[in-house]
Design goal:
Length: about 600
């Protein structure tokens, strides 16, 4: 460089990731992400807001509060001096900048923290400003977005800063009660009291690529434990693997991702005040009428898919139950991710149980079905051995069931219908699954689904294995692909217990009545989705088309039903099993 050092400093900067010398304007054009190594440089709050919101849409909220030095705190400098210095160097009044704006046309309230201002620390003023922003979101009925960057609570304000964790959290709780989406975007670094409150108790937690988040900082943990920390400890990818965040997002994708989530949350709102649709009364009747266990032929001859299911394929009516079991397990059979690609649009996957794991055997997230936003949750198997192993053969861990639970509850809060796709041999029967409370995890999902105040539509797409299947299948309508199976135990397992040996699995399969026609007759399943000849794996595209038609035909009537009535009818649906038929009908009134 021939330029003087001071001049060069302004025009060039050195990347902290790869040490490349970068032309500043080029770096800014690239959203302050190093074009050489992808290192995400820290952003101040004004620049962050500029990158996120629609141009001209930002209205800043007041940022001046009465001066607060509640403890008359002095370390080597009096606290007011530190505040003045931070204000002078950043041009900000405090460590957070708040406003309302639109993102991709979707309105939201935003609070963006600035790490340059006393380490983004959470003091009374910061807590107050974020709380007011949350209250503004509640008044305006818009989602709240929090962009965090903080070392934690502000020491200079003592226990009063600790209290801000509760103050902001209760404002977030009010938004949760009101069904308004809250999103936190973790940026580097987010630690301590901020991490342990509003950075992670929002509906959704996005981590910017490379960001680190944790309760205790790495230096403290190293001191306390005396151990070296694993590579990538507390980084965004580490957090994703350990179920702490919904997704890791590159800075250039952040705006679009937020816009998509805001659009989904907004779409869910009208579900609470339904617009009149054609023939709502008839739909109610049909839903209520579907409750008693009537054979499909008696169910007003209704065939929403408009196909001739019984005529398709090699006489499926007489296909042997054991053949059906083998078809349901066929490695080429479409998986949940296949259907998310072929039946739905715009899938945004959400990860993690927020407790420590992200189970690969369950996938879930927000997607669109014929333009309507829905929450889709399903078991994921795979087509190759490597896929199957990576997905634990579709056998969910407790973390998987808890992820599903989190997404079901989120859907209900936002007024989004839930569609589940069931394809599992059963819940994970491993040691760690037991240690982590597999039984209770399944139990909680079943209970929650019985009272979830939003439409739930379940489809048994492959194997409906026992409690692991039911954990996703307590629904208003339960559909089943023609060659799927749904059973209390695998035929092999049943044969091993009740027959002399496992070779009796084919007999057990017949005895268990696990095929779609059998279960329709028993009232466990409401409708069969016909598969193309000879089965779904032969023509995945046609299978997807039929599934999509069946989903729409069953979901649209549910959207008209008030949530309280949905829950009542769902309870009736699951109240009648095993009761004498006449009693069941009386109970359904
Ligand atoms: Zn770099």
């Amino acid at each position: 460089m021939t330029a003087p050092a001071g001049h060069a400093e302004q025009l060039w900067s050195r990347c902290a990731g790869c040490a490349s010398l970068l032309y500043r304007k080029r770096l800014r054009r690239n959203l302050d992400v190093c074009p050489e190594c992808g290192e995400h440089t820290r952003l101040g709050a004004p620049e962050r807001l500029r990158q996120l919101v629609d141009p001209g849409s930002l209205r800043l909220l007041p940022d001046r509060l009465p001066e607060a030095d509640p403890l008359d705190f002095v370390d080597v400098l009096p606290y007011p001096h530190r505040l003045s210095a931070a204000r002078a160097s950043t041009g900000l009044a405090e460590a957070v900048l708040c406003g309302t704006a639109t993102i991709g046309g979707q309105p939201a309230a935003l609070a963006v923290m600035d790490f340059r201002f006393l380490g983004g620390s959470l003091g009374c003023a910061v807590g107050e400003l974020i709380t007011r922003t949350a209250e503004r979101a509640l008044d305006d009925r818009v989602p709240l977005i929090l962009v965090t960057a903080s070392g934690g609570a502000r020491m200079q304000e003592g226990a009063l800063s600790l209290m801000q964790m509760a103050t902001v959290s209760q404002a977030i709780a009010a938004l949760r009660e009101a069904g308004l989406l809250t999103v936190s975007v973790l940026t580097d670094p987010t630690y301590g009291g901020v991490a342990a409150s509003f950075a992670t108790n929002t509906d959704l937690v996005l981590a910017e690529s490379g960001a680190r988040m944790g309760f205790a900082g790495p230096r403290v943990i190293r001191q306390v434990t005396g151990r070296a920390l694993p590579e990538g400890f507390q980084t965004a990818d580490f957090l994703l693997r350990h179920g702490q965040v919904d997704m890791v997002v590159q800075r250039r994708s952040l705006r679009g991702r937020l816009a998509a989530l805001l659009a989904a949350a907004r779409a869910g709102r009208p579900a609470r005040a339904p617009v009149p649709r054609q023939e709502p009364a008839r739909h109610h009747e049909r839903l209520a009428g579907a409750a008693p266990p009537v054979p499909p032929a008696e169910a007003d001859g209704h065939r929403p898919v408009g196909e001739r299911p019984a005529d398709d394929g090699p006489t499926p009516a007489v296909r042997d139950a054991w053949d059906t079991v083998r078809t349901a397990r066929h490695p080429g059979r479409p998986t949940t991710l296949d259907y998310l690609d072929s039946v739905f649009d715009g899938f945004v996957e959400l990860h993690g149980d927020r407790l420590g794991g992200d189970c690969p055997a369950i996938v879930g997230g927000i997607a669109r079905l014929a333009g309507r936003h829905v929450m889709v949750i399903g078991h994921q198997k795979g087509h190759t051995t490597a896929d199957l192993v990576a997905r634990n053969f579709g056998m969910a861990s407790p973390a998987g069931h808890r992820k599903a639970l989190r997404l079901m509850r989120l859907a209900a809060r936002l007024g989004l219908p839930v569609v589940t796709l069931v394809d599992t041999p059963g819940a994970d029967p491993g040691i760690s699954a037991e240690e982590q409370g597999q039984a209770a995890a399944i139990a909680e999902n079943i209970l929650t689904l019985t009272v979830l105040p939003t439409p739930v539509l379940a489809v048994i797409t492959g194997e409906g294995g026992s409690g692991g299947a039911l954990a996703l299948a307590v629904a208003d309508r339960v559909l089943m692909l023609q060659h799927a199976v749904y059973s209390v135990i695998s035929p092999e397992g049943c044969a091993a217990i009740l027959w002399p040996d496992r070779s009796a699995a084919p007999q057990a399969a017949r005895a268990l009545r696990l095929t779609a026609p059998d279960l329709c007759r028993l009232g466990v399943v409401d409708e069969i989705v016909p598969e193309p000849a000879t089965a779904a794996h032969d023509d995945p595209a046609e299978t997807a088309r039929r599934l999509r038609a069946a989903l729409l035909a069953n979901l649209l009537p549910l959207l008209d039903v008030p949530p309280a009535m949905l829950v009542r009818l769902r309870r009736q649906r699951f109240r009648r099993f095993g009761a004498p038929r006449a009693g069941a009908r009386a109970g359904a009134r």
